[in-house]
Predict the 3D structure of the following.
Amino acid sequence: MPRSLRLVLADQLSRSLASLRECDKQQDIILFAEVRSEATYVKHHKKKIILLFSAMRHFANELKDDGYQVRYIKYDDDANAGSFKQEVSLALSEIELDQVVLTHPGEYRVLEDMKSWQDSLDTPVIIVEDDRFLSSINNFAQWAEGRKQLRMEYFYREMRKSMHVLMEGKEPIGGKWNYDSANRKSLPKDTSIPEPKAFPPDKITKDVIQLVKREFDDHFGSADNFDMAVTREQALEIAECFVQERLENFGDYQDAMAQGEPWMFHSHISFYLNCGLILPKEVIQLAENAYLNDKAPLNSVEGFIRQVLGWREYVRGLYWYKMPDYKDKNFLDAKRKLPDFFWTKQTKMNCLHQCISETSDNAYAHHIQRLMVLGNFMLLAGVHPDEVNEWYLIVYADAYEWVEMPNVTGMILFADGGLLASKPYAASGSYINKMSDYCQHCHYSVKEKNGAQACPFNYLYWDFLDRNKEKLGNNPRLGMPYRTLNNMTDEKVRHIKRDSDIFFTALDANEEV
């Protein structure tokens, strides 16, 4: 058998990883490297770096304890070569090895780099499929080929059928595929929300925290109060706690937001799914078993499974199906720079202040905060897709380009022209007021439609529709708002334009808005 160098990336921390499956403990070397090129190609949130470096170190130690030969390069090692390719080259120069074995990476730029290694390293480089995902890249491409619209709902149904999840024979349990319409309730006052499961840092994690504070001080977010899971055992405990404590109410309130409640009834497992500590199939089974054992209602269980089996697999497939061209999509010709308050949190719009502050503190915000507050503002303001994609990639600990880009370019910004979403997810302040209590604490009035005290979302929504009328006016899902816009008086439209111009002038001048 050839002696192999097996490189494991920070989002591949799974015993079941394809490139580890045939690892020979006696002769193969498993390589982990905390490299500068990956830690700094964007200025990742401090907590994201802590999570990944600590989880890597814990996983490497587990493999060592199990008898594997592990080569681990820490970020501050004097001999750190700075990139994956250089670390692989250095290992090949120091150890007699016959080949390099890799699992398909999660990001296009990394794959393109790896494809060049064999020639430059003069060593066979074998890239194996990442079968931790439930739909292969080829399977998604076969499903997508020839379709004018790539709607997640139809992909999701095929996945349900193929894996026989929440099915009775060939039909969905309960007679419906999707219970999203039952999952849009606002949070009643005095609702008790469980505290999230937390893990005090051990010595390994404390060492990483000090490293991050020293080496990444200028990165976004806080390194304080880090309490994420960093081992598979801990990540499984978080998943089990979600099923026991939160899943019952997850469906009803998955779209709700509340002041000072960043975690709500969400699972908080995307951190661990996306770095490999837990696997999608096992969390799907946990949720399905909860329904089958009368521990959680169908709308909650289906809603959760749709996020994992449907949405997560779908965006990964779409990413690989459409890259690299997808990176350059800008259907609405958005040009604005990202406002400074997305870094400083200094804005009088309370909903944005809350969501950005919680993102800074936790490297997390739930999907409605990301889509209908933060993303909604970026859409209405016409922020360039490159700026938005970079921000989302930086600030969230579960963000990798394969999952972040389709969500931003397709779902948030409609920059792909409707390939992913059937309409832009634009909304006025009334949606935020319905789904949260943010407006009660805001400088602006959500009831005011125009003028200095009006909620900016109210007039920016109509301004967005007006300035994009040529491209969006014939969208059938926007028929009602465009009819409303067309029936507005000239004076009303002038007020919308005036208020929007005043707002954007202040925004572009970095005045507090």
Notes: The longest strand covers residues 29-33. The chain has a mean pLDDT of 96.
